[in-house]
Amino acid sequence: MPRETIFALSSGAPPAAIAVIRVSGPGAVAAAVALTGQRPEPRRARLARIADPDSGVPIDRGLLLFFPGPQSVTGEDLVEFHLHGGRAVIAAAERALATLPGLRPARAGEFTWRAFQNGKTDLIAVEGLSDLLRAETEAQRRRALAVAEGGLTAQIDGWQKEILIAGALIESRLDFSDEDDVDAVDTEPMVQARLRALQAALTAQLARPPAERLRDGLSVVIAGPPNAGKSTLLNRLVEREAAIVSTIAGTTRDLIEVPVVLGGIAYRLTDTAGLRSGGDDPIERIGIDRAAAAIAGADIVLWLGDAPPADGENGQALLHLHPRADLPGRGEASPGRLALSAATGAGVAELIAAMGEVAATLLPRVDELALSRRQRDAVAAVAEHVAAALALDDDLLRAEHLRLARACFDALTGRAGTEEMLDALFGTFCIGK
């Protein structure tokens, strides 16, 4: 059954200076001829009059480009109409394309899906592209671009090669174990050297900070006793009234989470209920329990209490603050505490700088590739199979573990995988990508 030809707006939402409508599939050239009366030249921009193929009514004058498959981004014939970016122009062009036989609007992520199906990209690069489309900070952009351009795939291909060589050495012993006339060659030192080097590389990669911290932002919980200025500090950091501020204790009952970029670093700030013992209000008690759980799961805790937290640190980075420094009698901060006033903004710049210093220890370096949860799970499974191959004496079992390790890498790159996982990933893309 012939593949359908799809079309969609692939540039930003109108109105805009330029609109790019992309058509991909076997009917792309026919669509260009129908709307312009011209057969496009490969990889050459041409000014064309775009008109409705049924009525002949002009739609716009714009550029027409043609990228023949398989040397196109989707791996199939691809035509682009570069038009003026008004809503009426775009709507008229899309209506005209929809009338052509064999053409239909593209689904979310379908252009990238076709590129994946046609071998123009792999699943890891697609994940990088997805992150690139959502990047809000320079660090997020750099990491996503490195993955999208094949940096992580190249690293995985190198690991895969080591497994293939080690597996071939093991299987060569199995193939010739009963051949008396073949001189025995001790390949075990080579197998051990390659697998141990690979094990060290996988362990080092798994020890690096996860990509989620960079992509989703570090979790920062603002905590302390009631009326310590937590909500005021949240509002100051996000520069809007995200939380209700009141002198009444217990105003904040639930968690209030707000994403923000400070100093080029993405954070997820969480305002919490004031922590105190006692109290008969069951709703406040739930809020306090949720606050404690948020603190336990935080990357950084901004503690606004005068006394240290009752439970101490549980692996999180703790910044002990001296809030409300503008009030009489609170001008001096104890050693190790950062004085600030969320009401006036004094000390907030210093707080953001201190958060940035802590973040630098928790986030991946610019020059290193970080793994997402799916990628980490696959690499961890490979590491387990490599460890088993090193620990066992039976060559049949060792060869099987290395085969399973290769299968894990195939699932990671998309050479093997489930339709449900692929559909979920491509569904995160916008229409036209």
List keywords for this structure.
single chain; Four Helix Bundle (Hemerythrin (Met), subunit A); 3 domains; 6-stranded mixed beta sheet; Rossmann fold; alpha/beta; Gyrase A, domain 2; 433 residues; flat
Q: Care to describe what's here?
A:
By secondary structure, the chain is α/β, with parallel strands linked by helices. The chain folds into 3 domains: 5-117, Gyrase A, domain 2 (2-Layer Sandwich), CATH 3.30.1360; 125-208 and 370-414, tRNA modification GTPase MnmE domain 2 (Four Helix Bundle (Hemerythrin (Met), subunit A), Up-down Bundle); 214-362, P-loop containing nucleotide triphosphate hydrolases (Rossmann fold). The protein contains 14 helices and 12 strands. The strands form 2 sheets. A 6-stranded mixed β-sheet has the order 3-4-5-2-1-6. The chain has a 6-stranded mixed β-sheet with strand order 8-9-7-10-11-12, sandwiched between helices. Strand 3 (46-51) and strand 4 form a beta hairpin. Helix 6 runs antiparallel to helix 7. The model has no long low-confidence stretch (mean pLDDT 88).
